[in-house]
Design goal:
Blueprint: E1 3-8, E2 19-22, H1 25-39, H2 47-56, E3 58-61
Antiparallel strand pairs: 1-2, 1-3
The structure holds zinc ion.
The site of zinc ion (ZN) has 7 residues, from helix 1.
């Protein structure tokens, strides 16, 4: 059963509606880092922020 990794930005940045998916955590991390830079003016993912994002990434099964 194929799964994707999904991250809702709202789990890290309350109020944000951005949702991204990727084949693995690394891909999701790259996408959220780009989004954070563009939309939240976060130039760098700190270790603390990275930890928060990783714990918010959820596996989602594709139907
Ligand atoms: Zn966001």
């Amino acid at each position: 059963m194929p799964t994707v990794k999904e991250l809702r930005c709202a789990d890290v940045m309350p109020g944000c509606t951005f949702v991204t998916t990727g084949a693995n955590d690394d891909e999701v991390m790259r996408k959220i880092a780009q989004h954070a830079k563009e939309k939240h003016n976060i130039r760098e993912m700190t270790p603390d922020l990275t930890k928060k994002v990783k714990s918010a990434i959820k596996a989602k099964q594709l139907a």
